[in-house]
Amino acid sequence: MEAAQQSLSQIQEEKDRLARERNERVRMLEEDNRKRQAEYEQQLEEIETRSKRTVEEKEQILREKDILINQKDLLLSQQNLKLSSMSKDEKQGRL
Q1: Do 53 and 45 touch, CB atoms closer than 8 A?
Q2: How far apart are CA 35 and CA 31, in angstroms?
Q3: What are the tens digits of pLDDT across the range 7-17?
Q4: Rounded CA Rg of the chain
Q5: Interval 50-71 mean pLDDT
């Protein structure tokens, strides 16, 4: 009976040890997962920041393009106005 009791005690100790090891592995995996999740969230935030910056840069370039187009149109209009105000002889001389 004593041997059976001792065997049960050893089995219970082994069971407890295995449970502790399993719990420690689970804790380590959870901690590793939290670290990875934090890294992924940081990477996602960096990508979103770069994307936002790229969109802002694109919008700025488009605004600058519009300004240049407007300036070009203004210069063409001024040139056409000058040409239309010139006499026929002056126009032929320029051509």
Answers
A1: no
A2: 6
A3: 999 999 999 99
A4: 40
A5: 97
Copy the structure tokens of residue 54: 């790229």
pTM: 0.56
Query: Which residue shows structure tokens 């009976």?
Result: 1
Question: Dihedral, CA atoms, 33, 36, 41, 47, nearest 10 degrees?
Answer: -150
> Rounded CA gap, 29 and 24, in Å?
9
Residue 62 confidence (pLDDT)? 97
CA distance from start to end of the chain? 123
Place of tokens 């089995």: 11
Half-sphere exposure of 23 (CA within 13 A, CB side): 6
CA atoms of 31 and 34, how far apart (whole Å) = 5
- C-alpha 45: how far from chain center: 6
Mean pLDDT to the nearest integer, 52-76: 97
